[in-house]
Amino acid sequence: MNATSPAPEGSLAPTPGRIVLLTTSHRVAPGLLSWPAWQALRDADRVLCADGTHPQLPYLSEAGIAVDEASPTAEELVAACADGHTVAIVATGEGEPTLTDGLARLAGSGRVQMPDLELLPASYDLPGARLLDLVQVMDRIRAECPWSSQQTHKGLAKYGIEEAYELVEAIEEGDRDELREELGDVLLQVVFHARIAEEDPEAPFSIDDVAAGIITKLIHRHPHVFGDETASTPEEVKAHWLRTKAEEKQRTSITEGIPMGQPGLALAAKLASRVRTAGLEVTLPLPKGGDGIGYELLALAVRAEADGVDPEAALRAAGRAYRDAIREVESGSAA
C-alpha cells in the first residue's frame, strides 16, 4: 500500500521503508520456516512480536535474531520504517487484524507516506493439516464432554452404520455439499473410535497407528505404484490387490472375511463376486436350497453382479421411485 505526499521541489523523496508481516501455521513445527522468511528476518532492521510466548521465538533466538516484544500502533510502525528501514512483524496465531486495519486507515487518509507492506507466509499447511486440528478437537471433547467421555466402541457402532448409509445416499443423490458433510461424519467415527482405543488398558492404539496400518496396506497392495510390478488396466490392478490380500490373510476359503451381517442383497453380490473372481462353478438353484423367495432374490443378486450391477443400489433406486409414486398418490388424495 502506498499513499504519498509530494516532496518539496528540488528535494529527494524520503525512502518509505518496508513492513513485512510474517504468518506461520501452528500445524507446522516451530522453526521450520521458509527460506524467504529467514531472509526477511535477517535483513530486517527490527523484528517485533506482540506475543512473548510465541512458539517461534526460541528458534529465532537460537538463530541469533533479536525480537522485541511489542505491539505498536500503525502510526508507530510507520515511523519505525522511516529512512528506508525494514520492520518484520511475527504475527500471532490470530493474525494482526488491529494493526492491518490501522495501516489501511492510515493509508486511506493520504496524510503520510506509507511504507511498502508485504504479507509473507513463513510456513504453509501441508495437505491434510486440518486433520491435526480434528484430532485435537476430539481429544478435548473426549476429556470434557459428559456424553462423549462415556462412549464405547459398541455404543458407537450403530452410528458408524448410519453415517455410512447417509454417505452412500449423498453419493447416489449427487449432492456435493451433502457428500462433503457426510464424509466428515464418517471421518468423525474413525477419529472417535481411535481416540477411545487409546484408553484401552491391554491393547491401546491411536489414530497414528490406524493411519500407519492403512499406509502399509496400500503400499503393499500397490506394487505397480510402489514396487517393480506393472499394471496398465483396472483388471490388472485388481489382480494385484487380490493376490497380495490372499498372501496377507492366508485364508482357506474365498468366503472368509465377508461380513455375514451386511444387507442380504449386498451379501449375495459379494459372495457371487468372490465366486466369479476365483473361477469357481457354483450352480443355481443351490443343491440344498428351496423355492422360497430368498432363493429367488439370491438368484437376482447373482445375476445383477454378473451384469456389473450393484443390486443394493438398484433396489434403492427402485425404492426411491416407489417413494415418489407413493407421494404422488398421497398428494392426489389430499387434493
From TrEMBL:
Tell me which InterPro entries the record gives.
4pyrrol_Methylase_sf (IPR035996), MazG-like_dom (IPR004518), NTP-PPase_MazG-like_N (IPR048015), NTP_PyrPHydrolase_MazG (IPR011551)
* Class in the EC hierarchy, top level: hydrolase
Q: Which domain of life is it from?
A: Bacteria
Return the protein name.
Answer: Nucleoside triphosphate pyrophosphohydrolase
The Swiss-Prot or TrEMBL record annotates one GO molecular function as: nucleoside triphosphate diphosphatase activity
What Gene3D superfamilies does the annotation carry?
A: MazG-like (1.10.287.1080)
Is Hydrolase one of the keywords? yes
Decide whether keyword Transit peptide is in the record: no
Pfam families under this entry? MazG
UniProt keywords (A-Z) are: Hydrolase
Q: What is its EC number?
A: 3.6.1.9
Q: Which residues form the NTP pyrophosphohydrolase MazG-like domain?
A: 151-226
